[in-house]
Amino acid sequence: MYVPETNVLLTRWLGEENSAEVIDLMPIPEETGAKPSLVRRIEVTRGKVSFRLHCWPRFDYARRKPKVTIDGPIVHFSCGDFTLRLCGDLDFVEEDGGVTANVTLMAGEKLDLVLDDDGKDEEQKLPDKESLDLLIRQTLHYWQSWSKRSNYRGRWRSAVNRSALALKLLTSSEYGSIAAAGTFGLPEAPGGPRNWDYRATWIRDASFTVYALMRLGYQDEANAFTHWITERTDSARRGHMQIMYNLDGSNVELETSLDHLSGYAGSKPVRIGNNAAEQVQLDIYGELLDSVYISNKYGEAISHTNWRSVRRVVDHVCDVWQDKDAGIWEIRSEPQEHLHSRLMCWVAVDRALRLAQKRSLAAPFGRWVEVRNAITEDIWQNFWNEDLGHFVHAKGGDDLDASMLMMPLVRFISATDPAWLKTLDAISAQLTDDSLVMRYRRKDGLKGDEGFLPPAPSGMSNASPAPDGWTRPRSTWKSCFSSAITCSSMPKNSTPAVISSAISLRPSPTWH
User: Fold this and answer.
1) Which of 338, 435, 432, 336 has the alpha carbon at shortest distance from 378?
2) Is the pLDDT of residue 468 over 60?
3) pTM
């Protein structure tokens, strides 16, 4: 669990005659003055507990083993010109490019461990207990103060705050960019090959994130991302943008398979980099312009220079909105004309028009209005299937797609429009399992099976009308929260079987 309203992790072990807890945290340099590090405090709260420590750092994705140097309570792991340092009042023993140690603590006793980079000019000594006590208090205070800034006071406050704290962890304090995830190699289904590297900033995902932060009152983080995205739009050649960037704004490298790694639960291959970085996904312009619009509504007004860059982006959308693309799900089969991509091109032009009118900004209104109307007509003519009685995911197709749930959320169609209600019923019948939603059920050029999305990222709960006093959305949200597992978190992808087994898990006392 997390210490309430913080990103400080607390793990408790309970035995019949003993108990212990471990606190893990990363100090905030701006708050504490400490350099980036990982701090672990072990405390026995009852009886006597023996622990065994293993620290085996591996560099370059476990392709290089470090040189280990033990200097009493301080261990150095050196690899090339970089060195990690582990500090702890233990008798360390070198083992296979790492160290181990054993310790037994009695009730009330504590052990502190600090892992950081080796400060060559620093005095090599153990951090004292008083300094670490202060560091822990300052870190707790930082996160609790940050959480209090949220202006959400609704029914789901605990879940909303936990989500906001997770988003904060994904935000770069140096650049203002927001990573899609902090992980790579985690499969969409256990043992499957769909294991992607998400440690980059997706324009789509980050735009949703900045919208959430804005609405929660976290203006600093939202404005920092807006400044970062401004640099991307300013440098976009003729308005063309990539779907993802590294946190520093550089290009994402293509995929490399790490064949020496077995993968999570045997899920191979383990990949770093992402081939989707070269794909065309037209929907990103809608999410981008929606975030620009929201930023201007709740944050800083757009500058003249940035508006000129935005105009180039919108003009580019006007040129390419009829093109085929890979779509939101980054399929690796032949490009198609996707409903979601067409819809978000409509959003891009619509939000640019709204912003220009609201701020009295110069714009080619005639062309933009003409294109917005043309996209509207195209969606109704080419993506509404009269025989099936609902919208379809691609021009000339008959399949459904979870991304279609965005249609009422972006105000393209009313949530009570009969055409939408028929589409929603079809999605519910064909793509859902309880509160989980499948992206799609068609072939996509990849091996393995697609996982399910919880209702929040799929948009299912928000796309459902509630004529019975919000009973349906509330029921969906309750089911969603019931699938939350460790640390009140929910997986982005899973399956009903995995969710069921994860919920049934209970921690057992082990002393490592």
Assistant:
1) 338
2) no
3) 0.86
Closest CA to 283 of 356, 347, 350, 190: 347
**Which DSSP string corresponds to 351-385?**
HHHHHHHHHT----HHHHHHHHHHHHHHHHHHSEE
The Cα-based distances of 263 to 67, 232, 375 in angstroms read 25, 34, 44
Cβ atoms 375, 282 nearer than 8 A: no
What residue spans of 236-303 are helical by DSSP H?
284-298
Domain boundaries, the chain: 9-143
Sign of the dihedral through C-alpha 221, 226, 231, 233: positive
Using a pLDDT cut of 70, give the percent of the chain over it.
86
| 503, pLDDT greater than 80 | no
User: Is the Cβ–Cβ distance between 154 and 200 less than 8 Å?
Assistant: no
Residues 6+ apart with CB under 8 A from 277: 200, 242, 243, 244, 251, 252, 253, 254
Is the C-alpha dihedral spanning 359, 365, 368, 372 positive or negative? positive
Residues sharing a CB contact under 8 Å with residue 42, sequence separation 6 or more, in sequence order = 20, 21, 22, 51, 105, 110, 111, 112, 113
Q: What is the mean pLDDT of residues 126-144?
A: 93
Look at residue 33 in the predicted model and tell me its pLDDT.
85
What is the distance between the alpha carbons of residues 329 and 332, in angstroms, rounded to a whole number?
9
- φ, ψ dihedrals at 355, nearest 5°: -65, -45
d(CA 188, CA 172): 25
Give me the torsion for CA of 363, 292, 151, 490, rounded to 10°: 150
Tell me which residue of 40, 35, 2 sits closest to 143, measured CA to CA.
Answer: 2
Euclidean distance between CA atoms 437 and 259, whole angstroms: 32
Contact between 463 and 352 (Cβ < 8 Å): no
pLDDT band at 463; cut points 50, 70, 90:
low
Buried-state track 187-226, b at ≥16 Cβ within 10 A, e below 16 = bbbbebbbbbbbbbbbbbbbbbbbbbbbebebbebbbbbb
The DSSP code for 335 is -
pLDDT in tens, 402-413: 999 999 999 999
Distance CA 474, CA 379 (A): 31
Letter for the amino acid at 326? A
Token pair in block for residue 283: 């929907």
Confidence tier at 186 by pLDDT (50, 70, 90)? confident
Higher pLDDT residue, 187 or 142?
A: 142
Label residue 506 by pLDDT band (50, 70, 90): very low
